[in-house]
């Protein structure tokens, strides 16, 4: 993965190192999401933004936090939302996720606003990073997803060109057939060009034409073909899913299914093709493309061996509810470990990002929960993003405090 | 607007044309059927049932441990410890929780059903800002699979409302969540009609976009006021007619107006207002508007800013129906706080309601209420489960004007009951059995009691 801000990270680390405080979280129940499984009465040491040690023999740190009776998990990861791109849904001047003429090259990361009020609110749900996806425009390709943390800092973007997004399936006008044919054509053309370019390179001809700079759209297609980024396809109907499976086989690319409403009908094929699925765990109302989706769809996919991740559907402002969706999936047959993987390690694997697990050397994105992370009664007690503790307090809390305070003066004076 | 003159009225008017001399023989009095699409609902097969040994939230603010609930003849007979009844079907509900049937005061099931299809998009008559003449019940597709999904979440009663495109969107209807192939088969007997009104962004956006009034919030207010002024005249005209007729005169009946019939119903206290209204300043004006024209402002739906005027709402007897945490999708939803419901609820005489407005969250209103309870308790409130349940049962029933019939487990009320697998405010909570008027309409463990809509039947 391209870490375009690596120099910024180095700078940031340099500045934090000066007053770097190592932290030891002790006596916690730690869901590592690795082969280590769940550790009880465990200690995790954070230093320099990363996890330095797990259960070291000698616990020495600047700060020691007794987490007895509490649960430590990796920070949850949002997927395919528009956080930082939309402040108020119906206010056009606060919306930067779509562009009528957007195509596969539409990289929306420069519009990301780390100061959006949605970000601190989302941290209330224990979410530390997110795969942010553009909504795009008329083209089947909606653009490029990027990966950001939810620190609210100006250097929140971790990586760009994380995935290409394409939307297939049912259409209000015309036939879905044209889209899937067009996608195959585009991939075929790009593959041929890439092969030609390689031939020329190997011929070592000093042909000026071969030095011609490729178009941005070609570069984007090549990233998919060369396996540098996955192609995330919004698709529901089983026939479209099967078409995507064939595309993956024919072109040898990484395909991710998003939505996948009808996936349970072809679960075995999806598992066999090793295609990850991102879905809304509580989406159970039928559409003509997803007549069979139900609350047990996630369980059926997990049982078939599919790598499933959850994304909150609908409005990005609801992203904080991700953990509740995971809990509801548990009530409908998913194991607790799988449900936690669906909001942490499985998303990380799907997008090849450094997150979603508690392991030595990993980025220290961590959440300490008062209890079971999925329960409605549980709250985030503490949250760290890249080793730095951050807060869950938000504009909503300020409004609550203003209107529940005692005051003889108009509320505007209560701050 | 097109005015309808039913033939009955034409006949009556022509007879009365000669004037209203007292000596003349009175024409037949002109009266209208206020219930022309009556409920045909009949309780499903039911038997005396005794639910044993559960944690019972009565919906009246009480919690009783290890209690029994006895249902006889479709009514709650008794709630208490160690009950018995001859010939009763007994259900061991140890470790389970029992609540009244859940009521959603704001749903568009049937009028915006799934699957989403142009052919079934029947919730907004967005052709003019005042469509008080339309009735949501005339749009309901009873085969919406969403009704069955909602029943699996414990929903026994729900109000289907028109959308919020219009200042006056039309009448809402209260349905029982029983499967039926007609709307009338679901209609809650004797529930009053609602009238959907809408404040704020939606009407002014819909009509402003068409270069038609309203295009501003002041345009919204003008639209309401002009409509109510006309409705007051219409009401007075009928009052004069009825008084003259009672005095033995032979007056001419006012021309019937289907649109004004609905507004008059509100002025007469027979139809309850359900007002989509997010913002504090707008709710405050809607209360004044109701006083200006002599009706009650009813329930404010989606009342995102209810916490800012919680005292006023309680004082005026308004219910506020709220989401626990939806926000930010438009400007008027920007000032959400997670404790909104709790702040409203804390005032004496208040009526806090949690609603869904969603085919998805209607399946778990219990958890929607739970989120409020836990977040509020983290921030200085002390809300108990027995209190939180009232937001989706008895308070919701009050909002719909059916609190004397359902919404709590009190002797004599309809036996609309849910048995949960545990605490209903857990993320793992599931409704196990659902009863409507004492009849089992859903059983998670028995497919015999899991209804399937015509639409879903036989699909591959």
UniProtKB/TrEMBL annotation, chain A:
Record keyword Cell membrane present: no
Classification via Pfam families: Amidohydro_1
Keyword Signal assigned: yes
Molecular-function GO term, any one: hydrolase activity, acting on carbon-nitrogen (but not peptide) bonds
Residues making up the signal peptide according to the UniProt record: 1-20
UniProtKB keywords: Signal
Region (Disordered): 193-218
Domain Amidohydrolase-related positions: 254-387
Protein name stated in the entry: Amidohydrolase
Protein's organism: Thalassotalea marina
Organism placement in taxonomy: Bacteria, Pseudomonadati, Pseudomonadota, Gammaproteobacteria, Alteromonadales
UniProtKB/TrEMBL annotation, chain B:
GO MF terms, alphabetically ordered: hydrolase activity, acting on carbon-nitrogen (but not peptide) bonds
InterPro entries cross-referenced by the UniProt entry: Amidohydro-rel (IPR006680), Metal-dep_hydrolase_composite (IPR011059), Metal_Hydrolase (IPR032466), Metallo-dep_Hydrolase (IPR051781)
Matches recorded under CDD domains: Met_dep_hydrolase_C
Name the record gives this protein: Amidohydrolase
Domain Amidohydrolase-related: 354-430
Record organism: Thalassotalea marina
Recorded superkingdom: Bacteria
Signal peptide (residue range): none
Alphabetical list of Pfam families matching this protein: Amidohydro_1
């Amino acid at each position: 993965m391209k870490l375009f801000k690596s120099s910024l990270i180095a700078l940031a680390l340099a500045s934090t190192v000066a007053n770097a405080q190592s932290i030891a979280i002790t006596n916690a129940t730690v869901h590592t999401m690795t082969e280590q499984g769940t550790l009880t009465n465990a200690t995790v040491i954070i230093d320099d933004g990363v996890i330095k040690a797990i259960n070291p023999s000698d616990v020495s740190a600047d700060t020691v936090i007794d987490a007895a009776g509490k649960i430590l998990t990796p920070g949850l990861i949002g997927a395919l939302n528009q956080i930082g791109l939309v402040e108020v849904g119906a206010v056009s001047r606060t919306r930067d996720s779509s562009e009528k003429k957007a195509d596969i090259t539409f990289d929306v990361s420069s519009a990301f606003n780390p100061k959006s009020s949605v970000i601190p609110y989302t941290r209330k749900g224990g979410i530390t990073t997110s795969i942010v996806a553009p909504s795009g425009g008329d083209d089947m390709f909606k653009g490029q997803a990027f990966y950001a943390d939810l620190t609210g800092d100006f250097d929140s973007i971790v990586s760009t060109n994380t995935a290409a997004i394409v939307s297939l399936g049912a259409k209000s006008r015309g036939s879905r057939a044209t889209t899937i044919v067009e996608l195959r054509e585009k991939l075929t053309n790009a593959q041929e060009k890439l092969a030609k370019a390689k031939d020329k390179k190997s011929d070592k001809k000093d042909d000026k034409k071969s030095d011609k700079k490729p178009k941005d759209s070609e570069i984007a297609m090549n990233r998919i073909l060369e396996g540098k980024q996955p192609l995330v396809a919004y698709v529901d109907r089983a026939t479209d899913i099967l078409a995507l499976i064939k595309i993956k086989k024919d072109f040898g690319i990484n395909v991710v299914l998003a939505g996948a409403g009808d996936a349970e009908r072809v679960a075995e094929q999806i598992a066999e093709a090793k295609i990850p699925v991102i879905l809304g765990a509580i989406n159970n109302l039928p559409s003509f493309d997803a007549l069979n989706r139900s609350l047990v769809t996630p369980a059926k996919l997990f049982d078939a061996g599919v790598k499933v991740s959850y994304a909150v559907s609908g409005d990005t402002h609801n992203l904080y509810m991700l953990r509740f969706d995971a809990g509801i999936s548990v009530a409908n047959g998913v194991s607790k470990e799988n449900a936690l993987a669906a909001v942490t390690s499985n998303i990380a694997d799907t997008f090849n990002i450094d997150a979603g697990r508690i392991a030595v050397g990993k980025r220290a994105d961590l959440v300490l929960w008062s209890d079971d992370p999925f329960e409605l009664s549980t709250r985030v007690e503490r949250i760290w993003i890249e080793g730095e503790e951050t807060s869950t307090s938000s504009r909503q809390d300020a409004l609550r405090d203003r209107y529940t305070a005692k005051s003889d003066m108009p509320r505007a004076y209560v701050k | 607007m097109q005015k309808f003159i039913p033939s009955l009225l034409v006949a009556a008017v022509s007879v009365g044309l000669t004037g209203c001399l007292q000596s003349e023989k009175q024409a037949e009095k002109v009266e209208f059927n206020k219930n022309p699409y009556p409920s045909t609902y009949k309780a499903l097969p039911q038997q005396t049932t005794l639910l044993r040994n559960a944690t019972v939230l009565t919906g009246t603010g009480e919690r009783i441990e290890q209690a029994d609930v006895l249902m006889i003849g479709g009514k709650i007979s008794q709630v208490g410890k160690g009950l018995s009844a001859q010939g009763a079907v007994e259900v061991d509900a140890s470790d389970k929780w029992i609540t009244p049937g859940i009521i959603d005061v704001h749903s568009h099931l049937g009028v915006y059903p799934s699957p989403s299809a142009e052919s079934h998009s029947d919730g907004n008559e967005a052709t003019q800002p005042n469509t008080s003449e339309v009735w949501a019940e005339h749009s309901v597709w009873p085969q919406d699979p969403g009704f069955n999904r909602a029943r699996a979440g414990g929903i026994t009663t729900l109000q289907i409302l028109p959308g919020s495109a219009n200042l006056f969107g039309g009448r809402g209807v209260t349905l029982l969540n029983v499967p039926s192939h007609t709307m009338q088969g679901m209609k809650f007997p004797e529930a009053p009609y609602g009238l959907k009104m809408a404040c704020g962004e939606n009407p002014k956006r819909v009509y402003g976009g068409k270069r038609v009034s309203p295009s501003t919030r002041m345009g919204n207010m003008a639209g309401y006021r002009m409509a109510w002024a006309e409705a007051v005249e219409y009401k007075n005209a009928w009052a004069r007619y009825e008084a003259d007729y009672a005095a033995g005169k032979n007056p001419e009946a006012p021309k019937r107006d289907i649109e004004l019939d609905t507004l008059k119903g509100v002025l007469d206290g027979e139809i309850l207002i359900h007002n989509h209204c997010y913002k504090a300043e707008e709710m405050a004006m809607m209360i004044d508007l109701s006083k200006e024209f002599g009706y009650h402002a009813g329930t404010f739906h989606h009342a995102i800013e209810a916490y800012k005027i919680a005292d006023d709402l309680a004082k005026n007897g308004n219910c506020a129906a709220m989401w626990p945490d939806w926000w930010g999708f438009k400007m008027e939803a920007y000032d959400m706080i997670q404790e909104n419901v709790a702040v409203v609820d804390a005032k004496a005489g208040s009526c806090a309601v949690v609603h869904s407005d969603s085919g998805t969250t209607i399946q778990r209103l219990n958890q929607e209420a739970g989120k409020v309870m836990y977040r509020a308790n983290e921030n200085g409130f002390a809300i108990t489960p027995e209190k939180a349940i009232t937001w989706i049962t008895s308070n919701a029933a009050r909002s719909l004007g059916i609190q004397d019939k359902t919404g709590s487990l009190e002797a004599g009320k309809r036996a609309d009951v849910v048995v949960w697998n545990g605490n209903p405010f857990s993320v793992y909570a599931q409704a196990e059995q659902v009863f409507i008027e004492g009849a089992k309409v859903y059983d998670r463990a028995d497919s015999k009691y899991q209804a399937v809509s015509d639409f879903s039947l036989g699909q591959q």
